[in-house]
Amino acid sequence: MQAQIQALLAAQGGGGARTGPNAGAHMEVAKLAIFNGEAGKVGGFITACRLYLKMKMRRTSVEEQVQWVLSYVQGGSADVWKKNVMEELESGEMEYETAEEFFTNLRKEFGGGEEESVKAAELRRMEQGGKTMEEYVQEFKRAARGSGYEGRPLVEEFKQGMNRGIRRKLMEAENPATSIEQWYRRATALDRNWRESRREEERMRKKEVGGGKQEQRQSLPRPLVWQRRQPLP
After folding, report:
1. In the listed set 64, 92, 112, which residue is the last one of a domain according to the structure?
2. Is-contact 137 159, C-beta < 8 A?
3. Is the per-residue pLDDT at 215 higher than 90?
4. 91 is in which domain, residue-wise?
5. Which of 37, 39, 46, 229 could lock 112 by a disulfide, CB 3.0 to 4.6 Å apart?
6. Residue 147 carries which DSSP code?
């Protein structure tokens, strides 16, 4: 498997700039930092790997993607874990159906539970406040990754953090949202419509105020102008 990893690295490093529908595979991507098993860095490492796989290795097999990620796992306790995983893959004892399944295993091994507890605490503190729903959803999604929350508990945390008016309208809907994705979409649409309505009301108010001032100016009597009488010749 070491030879396969080296071949993958060489293949990913070759080739010049190209254009066209497959140009994404040849775009320049920042080189990944080596992951040595430090718990606080596992989340960032996985995020960087996901980005690289999406941009450069989308058409490769899951086995090749896993091998490539393992090539950046080096040092300390990570070396021992990497060796065990490689042996299990070669012997057929373990097989990943998706790269995400491998990332889950990686996170469980090196996350140590500390990252998950931090993410969960951040999720529980999150509130929409003055942010748009789009902004709140993106921040909530970021905190939800690796927090351990999923399904109904994740929906409940999202509901608790959004502004009360939007939450009430969504909960009183004829067909309430059930999945977290439905809550994201409906809350975003409702918030966007509400903000657009407020902007339209503000425009109308300014227009009415401006029209009233103009009408007032037109209705005022014209000031009398006294002309000095010229002496008779």
Report:
1. 112
2. no
3. no
4. 2-112
5. 39
6. S
